[in-house]
Amino acid sequence: MKTPKNVLGDALQPCCFEPLTGFYRDGFCKTGTADVGTHVVCALLTEEFLEYTKSKGNDLSSPNPYWRFPGLKAGDKWCLCIRRWLEAEKAGKAPKILLERTHEKALEYAPKALLLSYAV
Question: Exposed end of the chain (fewer CB within 10 Å): N or C?
């Protein structure tokens, strides 16, 4: 099995285990054919972004016990959909990202220079 790479070309590092993130809920911003949202950006969440994504219909700050989802707060790390992150970037609401924890698939959607400009 091929080792996932990050946007820097190195082995993908885990994004977060507490709260447990990733499309596969394994702590990594990995993607695959089932991941239609392409959850590849490891972001350091801000209140501004959480409010923005909630206004777009994706409430990440409220707990959802059915899915064992604790709700997120500013300062949490989370694997975001690349399209939502780009949308937030255009609106001036994008959070900073952790490059070594962001999957190389993000480069198919965004130029490396843009991602580098948001590096933590």
Answer: N
